[in-house]
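Appendix C: a fully annotated inverse folding record. The material below is reproduced so that readers can follow the format used throughout the book. The structure is listed first as tokens, followed by the designed sequence.
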């Protein structure tokens, strides 16, 4: 019989484990969320306690299950055109003032299930109709990356998408796909996805970017991890490029490479 609750000692074990793997500080208020998301895994292995599940993960002999746990505990809610002023700034202040003919590259560093990536794709397609551009999306969760790569969403997710973009860049499903929509192929072909743990140095093969979106992920990190993440990303940001973070986040007090503050939550690399 699987226990319906988790002890404080067991929860502490998972807090340390997810911090070690992903740098996420899982507060005590997340205990119910952890129980809800991991109980199903206990059922799979017919474990009676969270300690048994933890011990299996801690051996290091089950990397696939460890990834499953990370997927379950790091999946966060997102939506199209979230915090829209950032996309207005991208269009009006960054894209309109650029003079380089080079491919315009944007990195959605915590892309989750892809809504941010495809919001960016719509903005770039609309603002750079005759210029090359591409978007890289990354996340620690393989589950959400697989979802993002499909570009397939419920019509219930369309709130926030301007009607003209919905008409131009989204294909409504029919028959067995009724009630859903697909991001247009011409946008999807300019996107690519990578599993990246932001707490680790970023491989230079990903390339350099004019803009990096790092939004609504640092709220899960402590100060030390926030600084580590930002310093891992900055080498991939071109000189003069912009770093954009979430409206509930700040870089104040972090020991990071110098950045110029352009607006609250928008920074420029000298």
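Designed amino acids, in order:
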């Amino acid at each position: 019989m699987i226990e319906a609750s988790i002890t404080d000692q067991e929860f502490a074990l998972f807090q340390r484990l997810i911090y070690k793997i992903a740098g996420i500080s899982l507060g005590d208020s997340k205990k119910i969320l952890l129980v809800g998301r991991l109980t199903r895994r206990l059922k799979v292995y017919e474990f009676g306690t969270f300690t048994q599940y933890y011990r299996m993960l801690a051996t290091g002999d089950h990397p696939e299950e460890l990834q499953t746990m990370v997927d379950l505990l790091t999946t966060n809610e997102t939506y199209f055109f979230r915090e829209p002023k950032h996309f207005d700034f991208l269009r009006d202040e960054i894209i309109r003032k650029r003079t380089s003919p080079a491919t315009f590259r944007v990195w959605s560093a915590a892309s989750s299930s892809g809504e941010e990536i495809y919001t960016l794709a719509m903005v770039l397609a609309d603002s750079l109709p005759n210029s090359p551009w591409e978007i890289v999306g990354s996340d620690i969760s393989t589950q959400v990356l697989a979802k993002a790569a499909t570009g397939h969403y419920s019509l219930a997710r369309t709130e926030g998408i301007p009607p003209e973009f919905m008409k131009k860049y989204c294909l409504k499903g029919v028959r067995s796909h009724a009630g859903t929509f697909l991001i247009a192929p011409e946008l999807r072909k300019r996107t690519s996805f990578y599993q990246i743990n932001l707490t680790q140095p970023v491989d230079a093969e990903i390339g350099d970017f004019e803009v990096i979106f790092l939004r609504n992920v640092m709220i899960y990190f402590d100060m030390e991890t926030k600084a580590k993440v930002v310093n891992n990303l900055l080498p991939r940001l071109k000189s003069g490029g912009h770093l954009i973070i979430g409206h509930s986040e700040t870089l104040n007090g972090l020991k990071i490479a110098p950045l110029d503050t352009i607006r609250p939550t928008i920074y420029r690399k000298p």
